[in-house]
Amino acid sequence: MTVSETQYLALLDRVVRHGDERMDRTGVGTLSLFGEMLRFDLRDGTVPILTTKRVFWKTAVKEMLWFVSGGTNIRPLLEDNVRIWSDWPLARYRREVDPAIGQAEFEQRVLDDDAFAARWGDLGPVYGKQWRRWVDAAGREHDQLGRLIDTLRRDPASRRMLFHAWNVGEIDQMALPPCHMVYQFHVNSRRELSCIIYQRSCDLFLGAPFNFTGGAALLLMIAQQADLTPGELVWMGGDVHLYRNHLDQVGALMARAPRPAPTMRLRRRAESIDAYRIDDFEVSGYDPHPALHGDVAV
Predict the structure, then answer these.
(1) Among 3.40.30.10, 2.40.160.20, 3.30.572.10, 3.40.50.170, what is the CATH number of 2-72+125-284?
(2) Domain limits of the chain?
(3) SS3 of 38, please?
(4) What pLDDT, on a 0 to 100 scale, did the predictor assign at position 18?
């Protein structure tokens, strides 16, 4: 993936050099470009886990497994030592109840108290709800992901193989409207499965590396369930931005040389899309530069 990671570095450079300066919803400020695309070839087993900074790939895959499970509460994530979704419910609790509570105390209460977790740990009808339990006007639930896999098995030439999370009627109930909102799939004549991820809004430094990793893991799972082989992961970004408080870290990352891409494989064939666990994923050859950290804009 060295060439693919070079694409990512070139995109960072374009945003730094040519990004439009904007004050955004979070008040932090961004440099932004509109309409970008990256292509990652997964056919040789490599995956887009960045090497120019350490990406905690297990965290990204655990998040994807949580989406696939239909989850909307942060408690299962915290039980898996994943804290990347805590900022939003914590901010709400601070606004409405206790502005002084620390993150560790809040998370522990979610873990220890069922009622507290139900009230304050839930994010509303976010990704997992829409992927697995989209409710139509008649009140019927639709499993978009399950239907996709069924279509891949029955009619792989279909041009209707997608799922999305932009449920207009429920946007206002979500802690955060979906960023990576549409996943479309394509099977070629060699039975290679490719996926386009359309992301309406992309934090290019913190968010994108997780989206690339999680997207690759999802593609591997779906390909296996449909008896296909992985093809390409195509990422399309709408508002692609760097937060101003990440620019120093971005400069440090861009000064690093990419290293050989790691590979990812599934250790077993799960009985269904719901049966995958983090231990099913094996990443080899990952030798990244040190991690670079930044604050999440909420």
Answers:
(1) 3.30.572.10
(2) 2-72+125-284, 73-122
(3) strand
(4) 98
* Torsion angles phi and psi, residue 184, rounded to 5: -115, 140
Q: Which of 31, 110, 165, 179 is catalytic?
A: 179
3-state DSSP assignment of residue 281: strand
> What mean pLDDT is reported for the chain?
96
**CB of 61 closer than 8 Å to CB of 68:** no
**Secondary structure class of 295 (helix, strand, coil):** coil
The residue among 165, 82, 156, 168 whose CA lies nearest residue 121 is: 82
Render 146-205 in DSSP notation, one character per residue.
HHHHHHHHH-TT-S--EEE---GGGGGGSSS--SEEEEEEEE-TT-EEEEEEEEEEEETT
Region of poorest pLDDT, from 18-27, 81-90, 172-181, 214-223: 18-27
Q: Distance between CA 167 and CA 178 in Å, rounded?
A: 9
Q: Of 50, 40, 61, give the one whose Cα is nearest residue 12.
A: 50
Is 202 tagged catalytic? no
| Rounded Cα–Cα distance for residues 229 and 144 (Å) | 21
Q: DSSP string spanning 48-59?
A: ---SSS---HHH
